[in-house]
């Protein structure tokens, strides 16, 4: 009985520390970050800026936590389906996606003449 109680307490402590209850909030915020980056990319309509916006959206989403990282990955796949972009286009943006999702500075991909607004 003591062993069961000890395991139960351990599970509760670990689950509380994992903050699993924040996952949905992080995922929703991450999806909003990705949508904002996509809208900014369309609004800017700047040549060679897509990698910057990919990296920025992933970076912002991932900073929210595990739910945001999940949303960034899931949003990317959804956008590929919606925009019907091919696999080769996807491969070209993967590096920027990974860079941003792993905490890299999105400005690495920022074009020189992109307005400071973005």
Automatic annotation (TrEMBL):
Biased composition (Basic and acidic residues): 86-98, 107-118
SMART domains: SAA
Disordered as annotated region, ranges: 79-118
Pfam families in alphabetical order: SAA
Signal peptide: 1-18
A GO biological-process term: acute-phase response
Source organism, top-level taxon: Eukaryota
Ribosomal protein recorded as keyword: no
Any Gene Ontology CC annotation: high-density lipoprotein particle
Keywords: Acute phase, HDL, Signal
Xref: InterPro entries: Serum_amyloid_A (IPR000096), Synovial_Prolif_Regulator (IPR052464)
PANTHER family, alphabetized: SERUM AMYLOID A (PTHR23424), SERUM AMYLOID A PROTEIN (PTHR23424:SF29)
Function per UniProt: Major acute phase reactant. Apolipoprotein of the HDL complex.
Family: Belongs to the SAA family.
Record's protein name: Serum amyloid A protein
Lineage: Eukaryota, Metazoa, Chordata, Craniata, Vertebrata
